[in-house]
Amino acid sequence: WFFAWIGLELNTLAIIPILAKHHHPRATEAATKYFIIQATASSLILFSSILNAWYTGTWDITQLSIKLATITLTIALTMKLGLAPMHFWLPEVMQGTTLSSALIIATWQKLPPMSLLLMTKHLPTPILLTLAITSTLIGGWSGLNQVHMRKILAFSSIAHLGWTVAILILSQKLALLSLMIYILMTTALFLILISHTTKTFKDMSQLWIKSPALSTSCMFILMAL
After folding, report:
1. What is the number of other CB atoms lying within 10 angstroms of the CB of residue 124?
2. Residue limits of the NADH:quinone oxidoreductase/Mrp antiporter transmembrane domain (predicted)?
3. The whole model's pTM is what?
């Protein structure tokens, strides 16, 4: 558990300077929000491990036998992933950063907590299913009235990770496949947005004039997401 916790902390501390490198109030606010959420989640993981060790005498984070420790670990990992109802930070942080930083948050930063979620056994199925359904519904509904691409992709991330967690209950391999497909699609769309500095749907309407083929590809990727 200690090395897993250290890995999550290094992952968090590495992204903070990237988020705050642009000296702008919104970037600073996004970096601060991200740090607070991730630090809180890491503290919960630490608490879960210590609680399990106190009652069982083992430090194995993948075999939690205490119910409170299991629930605490589940909540901590969902906070790190941005699943509902602990999702409020994700759209705000992604909106306050650059497109390249938002790409890292939406893809690479999901891998460490999802890896722990895949490794951890005996997670409570009712809680995971509730989180999955809530995330899917909130992510889908909240993305409908957005015009900024980063917020749309943030809510897309919440919805997709909800589906991934729902699949995780049935099969870990299928959940991993779902996550990889989501990361590939999101990366492709972000690279298109970065290359043409597209931030809103209004900017996307001008993409058709510059490159019809790329605009068509972007449309299909958005439909896939």
Report:
1. 12
2. 2-224
3. 0.89
What is the per-residue DSSP string for 141-206? HHTTT--BHHHHHHHHHHHHHHHHHHHHHH-HHHHHHHHHHHHHHHHHHHHHHHHTT--BHHHHHH
Rounded Cα gap, residues 129 and 140, in angstroms: 17
Q: How confident is the model at residue 136 (pLDDT cuts 50, 70, 90)?
A: very high
Stretch 160-188: mean pLDDT, rounded? 91
H helix and E strand count, the chain = 11, 0
Encoded amino acid at 59, one letter: W
Phi-psi region of 57 (alpha: psi -120 to 50; beta: other; left: phi over 0): left
Please choose, from the candidates 132, 156, 158, the residue with its C-alpha nearest in 3D space to the C-alpha of residue 225: 156
Could you give the CA distance from residue 52 to residue 76 in angstroms, rounded to a whole number? Answer: 15
